[in-house]
C-alpha cells in the first residue's frame, strides 16, 4: 500500500508547529511580564483553586484587623472616660470627708453641695460618651441613642445589658465596651458585701461608724437589727425577730454577732435602731444625689446632725466601693486591649505564613522561566528555519 505525502500537508504541519511554539513563547512572555506563574486557572487548576482559598483567608484577616481597630478605638475611649469618672469619684470622696467635719458651717456645706452638683452633671456627660462615630460607649448593643437621661429627678438607663463579642482573629473574640448598667447602675453599697444604716427616726446621737464580716463561717447573709432598749443596753434580732445577741453598749466599742462586727459611736437613745444586712445595689447618680440632699438638710438639733453624719458615713462607704468598681471596669477594658494586641500578633503571623504559601503557588521562578523562554525562542527559530528550507523542496525548482 502506497502513502502519499503532499506538499500541502507538510506546509500545514510546519505552520501548526510554529503556531504552537509561538503560543508557548507568548505564554512564557506573559508570565515574565506579570511575574506570575499562574496566568490563568488552566495553568494549574489545583494550585489556582488553593490560591483563591488563600486569598479569601488573607481578606478575612484584613476584616479581622478592621474589627480590632474599631473595638480598640472604643475601648481606648472607654478607658479615657473611666479615668475621668475615677477622678470625679476621688474628688467626691474628698468632699464627703471634708463635709463630715462637725465644725463645718452651713455655708461651707452648701459650697460643697454646689461643687457636687457640677460633678454630678459631669458624670452624666461621661456616661453618655460616644465613640466619635455616633455610637454611645455605654449603651450595650442599644448604642444608637443616649443611654442615660434624667426623668423625675432620677437618672434612668435605656441601654441594654449586652456586651458585644467581636472576632479579631480566627476563633479569637474580645469584648466591646461595658454596658452602662455594669459601670454606673448596679454598684454595690456598703463595703460591697454588707451594708448598714441608721433608722430615719432615731432621736439619739448614735453613729454607725464601721462594720465588717469577721467570721465568714458564721455570717449567713441575713438581715439584722440592733435595737436600743435603753441608753446603754441593746439587743440584736434577725429578720424573723429572733433574739441573736444582747448586751451593754459602751461608746466606741464594737458589737459582735453572727460573724459580724459593728462599731457605733455617740449616744443612741432608747428606741433607736441600726440595720445591717447584705449589700444591695445603687446607681452612682443616686448615691451622689443622696449626698447632695444630705448636705442641704441644714441640721439644727443634735439628732439631725447625727442623721447627717450617718448619711455622710454611708455615702463615703458607697463612694469607696464605687471607686473599686471603676478600677475593676478599667482592668476589664485593659485586659481586652491586651487581647487585641495578642490578636494582632496572631494575624501577622498567619498573614506571613499564608503569603509565603501563596507566593509558592502563584509567583514565578524567574531563573526557570528565563531558561524556558530562551529554549522556546530557539525552538521557534529552528521551526521557522525548517519551514524556509521546506519551501525550496520542489520538483519544478530541480527541473530548472
From TrEMBL:
Under InterPro entries, the record lists:
Flagell_FlgL, Flagellin, Flagellin_N, FlgK_D2-like
What the entry lists under Pfam families is as follows:
Flagellin_N, flgK_1st_1
Q: Which residues form the Flagellar hook-associated protein 1 D2-like domain?
A: 200-278
Q: Looking at the record's lineage, which domain of life comes first?
A: Bacteria
Q: Does Secreted count among this protein's keywords?
A: yes
**Flagellin N-terminal domain residues:** 5-141
- Keywords for this entry? Bacterial flagellum, Cell projection, Cilium, Flagellum, Secreted
| Cellular compartments annotated | Bacterial flagellum; Secreted
* Main location class: other
Q: Which family does it belong to?
A: Belongs to the bacterial flagellin family.
Name the chain's protein.
Flagellar hook-associated protein FlgL
Tell me what organism the protein belongs to.
Answer: Pseudoxanthomonas putridarboris
* Gene from which the chain derives: flgL
Amino acid at each position: 500500500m502506497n502513502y502519499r505525502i503532499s506538499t500541502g500537508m507538510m506546509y500545514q504541519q510546519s505552520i501548526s508547529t510554529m503556531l504552537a511554539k509561538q503560543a508557548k513563547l507568548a505564554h512564557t512572555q506573559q508570565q515574565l511580564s506579570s511575574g506570575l506563574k499562574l496566568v490563568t486557572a488552566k495553568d494549574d487548576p489545583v494550585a489556582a483553586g488553593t490560591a483563591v482559598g488563600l486569598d479569601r483567608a488573607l481578606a478575612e484577616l484584613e476584616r479581622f484587623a478592621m474589627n480590632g481597630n474599631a473595638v480598640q478605638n472604643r475601648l481606648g475611649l472607654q478607658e479615657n472616660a473611666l479615668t475621668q469618672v475615677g477622678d470625679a469619684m476621688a474628688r467626691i470622696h474628698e468632699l464627703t470627708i471634708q463635709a463630715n467635719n462637725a465644725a463645718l458651717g452651713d455655708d461651707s456645706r452648701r459650697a460643697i453641695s454646689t461643687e457636687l452638683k457640677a460633678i454630678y452633671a459631669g458624670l452624666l456627660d461621661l456616661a453618655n460618651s460616644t465613640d466619635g462615630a455616633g455610637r454611645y460607649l455605654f449603651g450595650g448593643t442599644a448604642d444608637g441613642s443616649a443611654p442615660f437621661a434624667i426623668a423625675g429627678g432620677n437618672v434612668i438607663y435605656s441601654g441594654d445589658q449586652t456586651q458585644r463579642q467581636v472576632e479579631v482573629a480566627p476563633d479569637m473574640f474580645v469584648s466591646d465596651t461595658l454596658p452602662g448598667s455594669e459601670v454606673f447602675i448596679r454598684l454595690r453599697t456598703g463595703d460591697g458585701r454588707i451594708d448598714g444604716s441608721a433608722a430615719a427616726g432615731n432621736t439619739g446621737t448614735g453613729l454607725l461608724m464601721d462594720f465588717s464580716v469577721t467570721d465568714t463561717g458564721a455570717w449567713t447573709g441575713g438581715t439584722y437589727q440592733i435595737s436600743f432598749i435603753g441608753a446603754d443596753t441593746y439587743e440584736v434580732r434577725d429578720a424573723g425577730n429572733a433574739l441573736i445577741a444582747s448586751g451593754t453598749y459602751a461608746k466606741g466599742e464594737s458589737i459582735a454577732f453572727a460573724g459580724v462586727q459593728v462599731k457605733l459611736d455617740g449616744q443612741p437613745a432608747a428606741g433607736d435602731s441600726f440595720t445591717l444586712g447584705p449589700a444591695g445595689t445603687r446607681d452612682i447618680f443616686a448615691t451622689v444625689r443622696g449626698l447632695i440632699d444630705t448636705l442641704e438638710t441644714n441640721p439644727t438639733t443634735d439628732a439631725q446632725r447625727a442623721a447627717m453624719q450617718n448619711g455622710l458615713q454611708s455615702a463615703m462607704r458607697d463612694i469607696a466601693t464605687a471607686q473599686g468598681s471603676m478600677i475593676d471596669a478599667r482592668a476589664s477594658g485593659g485586659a481586652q486591649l491586651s487581647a487585641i494586641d495578642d490578636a494582632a500578633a496572631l494575624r501577622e503571623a498567619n498573614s506571613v505564613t499564608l503569603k509565603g504559601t501563596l507566593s509558592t503557588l502563584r509567583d514565578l521562578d524567574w531563573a526557570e522561566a528565563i531558561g524556558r523562554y530562551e529554549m522556546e525562542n530557539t525552538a521557534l527559530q529552528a521551526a521557522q528555519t525548517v519551514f524556509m528550507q521546506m519551501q525550496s523542496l520542489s520538483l519544478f525548482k530541480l527541473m530548472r
